[in-house]
Amino acid sequence: DQQVKQNSPSLSVQEGRISILNCDYTNSMFDYFLWYKKYPAEGPTFLISISSIKDKNEDGRFTVFLNKSAKHLSLHIVPSQPGDSAVYFCAASAGGGADGLTFGKGTHLIIQP
Amino acid sequence: DAGVIQSPRHEVTEMGQEVTLRCKPISGHNSLFWYRQTMMRGLELLIYFNNNVPIDDSGMPEDRFSAKMPNASFSTLKIQPSEPRDSAVYFCATTETGGQETQYFGPGTRLLVL
Asked: Which residues, other chains included, contact B54 with Cβ-Cβ below 8 Å and sequence gap of 6+?
């Protein structure tokens, strides 16, 4: 049973618009959430994170929102740029993050010119 | 810093052969994680080490898989004997202390077992 779910395998967004990537989780013990970005033939690279004590974290064009009651988080990218085209993974950890990460299957974001 | 280094980047082998994947963590990082990525299951944690000690290997799929970390600057993931279903991309990731910190991933090893 998948504990972290990204229900959209792909998403196409026009350049300059907002990209919204969604993630749901089932494990109530998760207390730290991250988004990773992955280009082909490379390892995932960290993008942004949020602790369960917060409901929003912002870093430049990237904002992550956490809704604990709904067990849902989302990543907003504004404005979207061609270089944002990649696969985005949602990940979660429990126990203060000392354990490994549980990943979703990823969403392939395509930014169209 | 060179980042997490993995070798080889690509490996093609025949069923039944032994495969050894290698990882060199970022200097000073004390926690090391091995992940596997497949189309069906996505990215899965296989095993992780803190200060060279295996902490949780519950993600290791079978006894054919083993991992070691003989010192702070080197880890191996071994598959013996390999099977076609082991074909995947294997990633190594490291963090400084294993707390709520960013995990830095290597470029991965793409394994194909024929």
From this structure: B47, B48, B67, B69
**Which residues, including other chains, have CB under 8 Å from residue B86's CB and lie 6 or more apart?**
B19, B64, B79, B111, B113
Q: What is the model's pLDDT at position B98?
A: 55
Phi then psi for A84, rounded to 5 degrees? -80, -10
Positive or negative torsion for Cα A58, A61, A62, A67: positive
Q: Are B49 and B71 in contact (CB under 8 A)?
A: no
Q: Taking CB atoms and an 8 Å limit, are B35 and A96 in contact across chains?
A: no
Closest chain B residue to the Cα of A35, Cα to Cα: B102
Q: Where are the beta strands (DSSP E) in chain B?
A: 5-7, 10-13, 19-24, 31-38, 42-50, 53-56, 65-71, 74-79, 88-95, 104-105, 109-113
- CA atoms of B36 and B34, how far apart (whole Å): 7
pLDDT in tens, A20-49: 999 999 999 999 999 999 999 899 999 999
Chain A residue with minimum CA distance to B95: A98
Distance (Å) from the C-alpha of residue B106 to the closest C-alpha of chain A?
A: 5
